[in-house]
Here is the input.
Amino acid sequence: MPSSISDSKSPGLVYAKVLAAICAILLALIEVSSIYLLKHHSPTYARISGQYNEAVKIRPARPGEPANVLMVGNSLLLHGIELDRFRALTSARLHIYPIFLEATGYYDWLYALRGLFRQGARPQAVVLGVGVNYFLEDGVRQDYAPMLFFSARDTLAVASNLHLDRTATSNLLLAHSSTFWDTRSAIRTQILSHVVPHLEDLFMLVNQTPTIPEGRAFEEIVVPRLRRMQELCEAHGAKLILLVPPTLSAESAVSEMAYAAHKAGVDVSVPVDPAALSANFYQRDGMHLNSQGAVVFTSALAKDLPDKVVTHNTLASHPVR
Here is the structure.
């Protein structure tokens, strides 16, 4: 009797092993294909990975040389700053290393900076420009950022900071370790954009502008975050400068942000008053500057930022840990 039972189970066990092997091969093929597509057909990955690799090499400039500045932010800077023009206007005083990844906010860049500093990046100043809404957001970008910016330990720390449940934490860890899992949302969006006409307009209807807290509630969120990021930068010999790009009808939010930065002891750059720009300077979403707005913002930032960047000689007095 035992022999017959054993014989009856053997085919089932063999089939299970074969099925498991087929699944493993398929998963490996999907992962390899995702890596290939990412490295050869993703402009976002090519841009961000290249910018990140350059930023890791930043070292303090020698006396008399332009200060090396790491500038990080989201699409507000990607669309708002004409980099070639900005570099030309500031080349005598600044050497800019940009990393601009869309839909990123405070937590994305807090841990991205941790990773950059850990790998040896030593800018003399860090300029952070994500806009008020994204600075207040309790979340991280679910694609690209976990894979490119976070270590496994950082991923767990992000999950703890955001009080994520086990499912969300697992998704974040998978996004960090698997190219397919990290880019699945981007792939889905690309497919939908070819299938659904005017997809961007539909997203604009769904993604309404969040409500911004005011007064003490605003400060209770912003001030501790700024101080935490400032401490991180100063511990590695860099000065933090908060850059507040304009968005349509955001005068009060920008004023609150500037006041909170002053209260936290962080230098703030508000090159353009949002009240000075009409809707003609923005794209249809009312957030991102168009080409006209980018010209205005780039010129104003080139005048405002250099004086806020600490020189190499001044930074020499700050210990680097």
About this structure: DSSP finds 15 helices and five strands in the chain. Residues 143-197 form one domain. The longest strand covers residues 67-73.
